[in-house]
Specification:
The complex is a heterodimer of chains A (306) and B (270).
Chain A (H helix, E strand, L loop, with lengths): L9 E12 L2 E7 L2 E3 L3 E5 L6 H8 L7 E6 L2 E3 L3 H4 L3 E4 L11 H11 L6 H14 L15 H13 L5 E5 L7 H16 L3 E6 L2 H7 L2 E6 L2 E7 H4 L5 E6 L2 H8 L3 E5 L2 E5 L3 H10 L4 E6 L4 H10 L2
Parallel strand pairs in A: 4-9, 4-10, 7-8, 8-9
Antiparallel strand pairs in A: 1-2, 1-3, 1-5, 5-6, 10-11, 12-14, 12-15, 13-14
Helix pairs in contact in A: 3-4, 4-5
Chain B lengths: L1 H9 L2 H24 L22 H9 L3 H20 L1 H6 L5 H34 L8 E2 L5 E2 L1 H32 L3 H19 L29 H27 L6
Antiparallel strand pairs in B: 1-2
Helix pairs in contact in B: 1-6, 2-3, 2-4, 2-6, 3-6, 4-6, 4-7, 4-8, 6-7, 7-8, 7-9
The chains are: A alpha/beta (306), B mainly alpha (270).
């Protein structure tokens, strides 16, 4: 196997990364490619191998075969050098339930070799907590936190070390819509400042709204990996919503690609001219416009092609 | 890391509850002895207990003899069993490892923490029972404490022999801690790891009562636990103490290495 040359611009690269549990291939020959500045959406149903992959990237699970390179260094061999620059949320946040949020962050900070000096620690903790919308003065034990607050605390722990790469597993889990919006804005802000974000999720809508690049995992295999705007580029089809389906079909003939309910997909270059033509023919057009696939359709399509 | 683990241990209410429990039993014994004035006949019951009615300064040793066979090992098993499995249960283990904390480093910190707990527990038990012995039980004869062999021990001699005995007890508990730590790396359940350790100690005790298992006796972890009594004979009877040390260091080495080998390459997928 050729070793992965450390290339500038690649934040995560894996080659034929595989994890077998007995006969089961939880992760099967995955070649991830995440570039600096990406917001990478790592999609897949529950049980598709997302979490195992994330754990291998972080050195928690050892791969059966294949290679992984994170921040230009091999994992898990270089974990002590790589991990201080990564902030992560793996599956769910965790904290000592009998301690307050800031006490938890202080303990976590003190365990690392890059621990902060005592007099700067308090400020860093307060900053991280404020960043995710938690009150640094809150003395309640984490036991009393809501799920959303725990999620925010987990994010604060990931952000406290000012990481160059954030690896987040379902970061908006348990948050209310307002909280989701807040966290999403925070992540995009961090990305704008140069943080690469690897976001593992099963929420297509979330990925579609935030990500620049997606990878789709199914049964341990990476079935799709592409820039999001390329996946969602115009298809050369026009969607026509009308009540006069029948008439429309006869008028347009073979250019009609498909009919679903009162929507037709028509092969046409210019929606405007198509509209003028249909209106001229007395077809009642409710809605017309270029057809773009949603991420959901892209993913379903890729799965169907297997 | 070690400092953080120590702070975590000392900051847990559980630690102090266990120590409280350890102190309660000898206290109860002291009160009962003082009230009833009924000591066990010489040669029966826990070591030293027959002597404390006339000499209260021996009560710390009697107290250790009371907690050593059962309470202290259970406490060590619970703490040692919780070391890795407990972090695994709360989910904090993965965040410690990606902090990153080296796995060997983490194991070492946990082992040191359990040792620190044993040290603390033994000192608290010894300290409290010393006070109880002085207040509730007999005064030492002016000539000095009588050793188990009948000769007299000076105060100074008694002090260093007591220190030796405390050290011996701590090393015995270190063996238990290593076993518990190993079980703790095997399972995700802290209770399971603690019960596994306690099970091993119970099995050892049962086998000790069985003549058919006499070939195994010298290798059983609980065989020489009470050998610290021999430190108070005149001259000191070293044989069992030394054997006990060897056995405990053997358990410590084997199980610490096993824990290290298992944890070092383990997939953390809780």
């Amino acid at each position: 196997m050729t070793s992965l040359a450390s290339t500038n611009g690649h934040v995560i690269r894996t080659q034929a990364l595989t994890k077998r549990y007995g006969e089961l291939r939880a992760v099967d020959g995955v070649n991830l490619d995440v570039r600096a500045g990406d917001v990478y959406g790592f999609l897949g149903a529950n049980g598709s191998g997302k979490t195992t992959t994330v754990r291998m990237l972080l050195g928690l699970v050892l791969p059966t075969s294949g290679e992984a390179e994170v921040l230009g260094m091999p994992m898990p061999t270089a974990r002590l050098n790589v991990l201080p620059r990564i902030g992560s949320l793996v599956e769910s946040p965790a904290a000592y339930p009998h301690l307050s949020g800031s006490a938890n962050l202080a303990l976590l900070d003190a365990t690392g070799s890059d621990r902060s000096r005592r007099w700067t620690r308090r400020g860093k903790i307060a900053d991280a907590l404020a960043q995710v919308g938690l009150d640094p003065a809150d003395r309640r034990p984490v036991r009393a936190y809501s799920q959303g607050m725990r999620q925010r605390l987990g994010l604060a722990a990931a952000l406290m070390r000012k990481p160059t790469l954030l690896i987040l597993d379902e970061p908006t889990n348990g948050l209310d819509p307002h909280g989701i919006h807040e966290i999403r804005r925070l992540l995009l802000e961090l990305n704008a400042q140069g943080t690469t974000i690897f976001l593992s999720s099963h929420l297509l809508a979330e990925v579609e709204q935030m990500c620049t690049r997606v990878g789709v995992l199914r049964d341990g295999r990476l079935i799709l990996q592409e820039q999001l705007d390329e996946l969602l580029q115009p298809t050369g089809l026009v969607a026509v919503h009308t009540q006069d389906i029948g008439r429309c079909r006869t008028l347009l003939g073979v250019t009609v690609v498909s009919v679903a309910g009162n929507r037709l997909l028509v092969r046409a270059k210019d929606p405007g001219r198509l509209n003028a033509y249909l209106v001229n023919e007395d077809v009642r057009v409710d809605e017309i416009g270029p057809y773009r696939r949603t991420l959901e359709e892209v993913v379903l399509d890729a799965e169907a092609r297997l | 890391m070690i400092v953080v683990e120590l702070i975590k241990m000392l900051g847990r209410p559980r630690t102090w509850m266990i120590i409280g429990m350890l102190v309660t039993l000898p206290t109860l014994v002291a009160i009962l002895l003082a009230v009833t004035d009924l000591g066990p006949r010489p040669g029966t019951g826990p070591p030293f207990l027959s002597a404390v009615l006339s000499d209260g300064t021996l009560f710390p040793l009697a107290a250790l003899g009371v907690v050593l066979p059962l309470l202290l090992p259970i406490a060590v098993a619970v703490l040692g069993g919780d070391a890795i499995a407990g972090e695994s249960q709360t989910g904090t283990l993965r965040y410690l490892l990606v902090r990153p904390v080296g796995r060997t480093h983490l194991l070492l910190a946990k082992l040191v923490t359990v040792v620190a707990f044993v040290l603390l527990a033994v000192l608290v038990v010894a300290g409290v029972s010393y006070a109880e012995g002085r207040l509730l039980l007999g005064r030492a004869p002016a000539t000095g404490t009588v050793s188990l062999s009948g000769s007299t021990l000076s105060q100074q001699e008694l002090t260093w022999r007591t220190a030796l005995a405390l050290g011996y007890v701590i090393i015995c508990m270190l063996g238990v801690a290593a076993v518990a730590l190993f079980f703790s790396t095997l399972t995700r359940s802290a209770i399971g790891a603690a019960l596994g350790t306690i099970g091993l100690l119970v099995a050892s005790t049962v086998l000790l009562g069985l003549d058919a298992a006499s070939a195994l006796h010298p290798f059983l972890p609980t065989r020489y636990w009470l050998a610290f009594v021999d430190l108070f004979r005149d001259p000191i009877l070293w044989r069992d103490v030394v054997r006990g040390l060897v056995v405990q260091l053997g358990y410590l080495t084997v199980f610490t290495l096993a824990a290290w080998a298992n944890f070092g390459t383990k997939d953390i997928d809780d």
